[in-house]
Amino acid sequence: xxxxxxxxxxxxxxxxxxxxxxxxxxxxxxxxxxxxxxxxxxxxxxxxxxxxxxxxxxxxxxxxxxxxxxxxxxxxxxxxxxxxxxxxxxxxxxxxxxxxxxxxxxxxxxxxxxxxxxxxxxxxxxxxxxxxxxxxxxxxxxxxxxxxxxxxxxxxxxxxxxxxxx
Length: 166
Known about the structure:
This protein is mainly α. It has 5 helices and no strands. The protein is elongated and about 60 Å long.
């Protein structure tokens, strides 16, 4: 098999999107269930601490997350120029799922929720305020994370199928 720039870009997209998918999956099935039994204050503090690592520009996270977006866009451009039929359709659907089903909800829903938590003065809230904020945070965050996880798994699966076909 001759490795073209499309092959290399697809491999890179699969690698980086898989890392993002694993992170989302890990939050869905381990992290969030793991902190779910904490009391409201402990839950909010724990999530805030984890998010601070990301918000403080953790370089490997930025490389994987930002690189996944750029590599999918690059693969989409190269694929549009070089593929046809079912292969092009697979690439377009996989890219749309990733960009609009993973990245868009992240920027539209999960990041604003994270930012609201980062701005929260947790230690100054009473128990009812903590419970209310947690409810307004946890339920939508988990819903959108499950949505992102499903789309990420589908997208990576389609990219893998496409790579095998090439």
